[in-house]
Amino acid sequence: MFAVHLMAFYFSKLKEDQIKKVDRFLYHMRLSDETLLDIMTRFQTEMQRGLGKDSNPTASVKMLPTFVKAIPDGSENGEFLSLDLGGSKFRVSKAQVSEEGKQHVQMESQFYPTPNEIIRGNGSELFEYVADCLADFMKTKGLTHKKLPLGLTFSFPCRQTKLEEGILLSWTKKFKARGVQGTDVVSCLNKALKNHQDLDVDILALVNDTVGTMMTCAYDDPFCEVGVIIGTGTNACYMEDMSHIDLVEGDEGRMCINTEWGAFGDDGALEDIRTEFDRDLDLGSLNPGKQLFEKMISGLYLGELVRLILLKMAKAGLLFGGKKSSSLHTKGAIETRHVAAMEKYKEGLANTREILTDLGLEPSEADCVAVQHVCTIVSFRSANLCAAALAAILTRLRENKKLVRLRTTVGVDGTLYKIHPQYPKRLHKVVRRLVPNCDVRFLLSQSGSTMGAAMVTAVASRVQAQRKQIDKALALFQLTREQLVGMQDKMRVELEYGLKRDTHLLATVKMLPTYVCGMPDGTEKGKFLALDLGGTNFRVLLVKIRSGRRSVRMYHKIFAIPLEIMQGTGEELFDHIVQCIADFLDYMGLKGAQLPLGFTFSFPCRQTSIDKATLIEWTKGFKATDCEGEDMVDMLREAIKRRNEFDLDIVAVVNDTVGTMMTCGYEDPNCEIGLIAGTGSNVCYMEEMRNIEMVEGDQGKMCINTEWGGFGDNGCIDDIRTQYDKEVDEGSLNPGKQRYEKMTSGMYLGEIVRQILIDLTKQGLLFRGQISERLRTRGIFETKFLSQIESDRLALLQVRRILQQLGLDSTCEDSIVVKEVCGAVSRRAAQLCGAGMAAIVEKRRKDQGLEHLKITVGVDGTLYKLHPHFSTILQETVKDLAPRCDVTFLLSEDGSGKGAALITAVAKRLQQAQDN
Ligand code: BG6
Ligand code: BG6
Ligand code: GLC
Ligand code: GLC
Fold first, then answer.
1. Which of 537, 656, 890 maximizes ligand 2 atoms within 8 Å of its Cβ, making it the mutation to test the pocket?
2. pLDDT tens across 585-610, in order?
3. How many angstroms separate the CA atoms of 221 and 232, rounded?
């Protein structure tokens, strides 16, 4: 009994002495909680630096965006291939995810060796080897000739701009293959796969092992938002708020950040805690000066640190009686598995003796105790450092969520964590001490990164399939040059039909004579009233023209026309118009003045003279009853009479295209075409009288209001009309009519967009598949919104804000799609409009027998004016389709009221001449 006590006493004394000795020797490796908290703060600063746009280039902790945005939600499914390269083992797997809707993953894997000559040889050979292993796996599993998506777990720092691409920043750990740094590893692998014609794999995702681990664990525990590797290397990833990630556009939701914490300290930030052993180890490594934090922590280095310490202690006579063996001098002789074995609770001491003996040493009992303690200090320091950095991440997560207490799960993997007997316990304990306000669950990843990578790939594959569906819908709006030439030709035919007496009445492009025969010559003068009805705004104007100086002064007022009046009775509409005139005269102090009036009336009218205009049919948003077939001048006169307050001399009725041409013609006599790209779409132009069969006389020219909006009403452009165009048409006030207008003008473009969005939402591709009340509301996308959404200067966030203003609750991804949809629709509109314009200018050129035509088009309309790309695309198309015409587009600054007044002035002069 006594002897046993004596032994125990002797042993504990020996132990105490040895421990004290080692503690003294490794004083610098023992880190107090105070130091750890300090390191934690430093790491917090480093993370911030890595996330900032300006500080990132010089930051040592790179905080790499991974483009993984969501943790698995259980809806993932399919069959996926997975490669896992960069840890201690290289593995190829196949994962079958969530068959029959229940969360379930089946995996088949195969490990392949990674000999040094491959991982430190030529880069292309490395990827060829990887491709060969994949081919072998697929052959064994009978997967050749099957198209499969692949997720690549690649455990090295890669700069990603999308999920399926990553530029290798630097090799770490044991890898150092030539010619890969700075290149995209996915392309490298794709290139190598070209040697295997029988394989059909689509690399959809590149993930770091930390990310794979986090995703694997998140499949079981949705609280998992951090992934940590403590294996050959060490690293962590976590879900960061998008609004904090400067390097990626968008502010919504979160994205996983691969911290690459292994590089912490590479800028000298940890010099005060690094020891001479760390420095020696670094010098002998494959990447001196790099991954300094990793080199104090991870499995690849722990054994070597222990060896360097033992060697130094032996040299100092503190161990093995001062004797060293050649093995103790050999780099890599002690591995992490040895450290783990030596620290085992019961067998540890015996293991230590065996290991040291195997190294050719003759350890005493005291030596074994001391060596065991060296291991403990080294591995403890590792766990402590890891804990400090992890505590920084957890604090960041808690602060991001503005929580007092954070409940979260950390997914962990890596051989050091898995095989070292004390490591997990120590790590967990220190983390909990450093961040007492975080309840952390540590979850060991059971199936490595593979399952997580398959999950990411599953999501990517779903996104890819959705992308295809979106592209398919938008492809309908992409017109080939051939199709545009076809449009131009058909328009040309319709223009001729409209002009010919025999076909005129049946023509869809009505080619209405306007009885405007010349451009203003500068002699016009006087005071005129003008009305401008049919565009976005209804305006009443007073126009003062001074002769000789080509100067015009205008005063105007905008009045609203309520929907119930636009679509009420004709009498109500005209009474309202007269009411507005009365208000205006009152406002201008002109009550009782009998002024000549020019009426811009932007609808198709059959005219027999300048002051007679029978409305053929309403277009756009008007539908007042009892007007079609009536003379608009008569209706206005009667309304004035009904009011019996003032009299007006209605001299001219003009279409807005004509008013616009005149407005511009006053500045540029070469302006012989008027174009409106606004609520509606239409063109007028000066035509040779001899070509206008419906009007007597062959001399000179007359302006023709083409009313090209009706182009296609006979079905001749149905080949390019999409289901969305048809839906817009069916929901309009005039189904079957104005088909070309409905593809090209502001009033309808937004509606086409809305129809596409509804369809994409129904397919589950937008707005989380929810069609909101707002989206069902006709007319929400006015031209101004389309124009804003498509503005190049707009960040995604602003697009989202506009959509929110419209009552559409969209994610960033939604916003991207909406912007694309708007782009496709407006581009087609501009191209179609360009094809129509090309037909007109080419006709003018040919009619005049000219080699080259130089002509100006006066333009107005909100679409043309506000949209960021419409005018450019329109002009490019005209240039392309009518290369022999030199067309200048002149924007009308003053609206068509001015032109209407000028026409009135000319008509008044002619009238007076006739009267005399
Ligand atoms: C494995 C993962 O389980 O752990 C790998 O599948 C990862 O992706 C590895 O790289 C990390 O540990 P080690 O010890 O193999 O480097
Ligand atoms: C205005 C003209 O500037 O533009 C109107 O004065 C014309 O006559 C209008 O109808 C067309 O554009 P929108 O976009 O208002 O229909
Ligand atoms: C190294 C790599 C890193 C990886 C880690 C764990 O630190 O740079 O990308 O996650 O090892 O394998
Ligand atoms: C509609 C009208 C037309 C007008 C055009 C532009 O197409 O029918 O007359 O010119 O809109 O406002």
1. 656
2. 999 999 888 899 999 999 999 999 99
3. 25
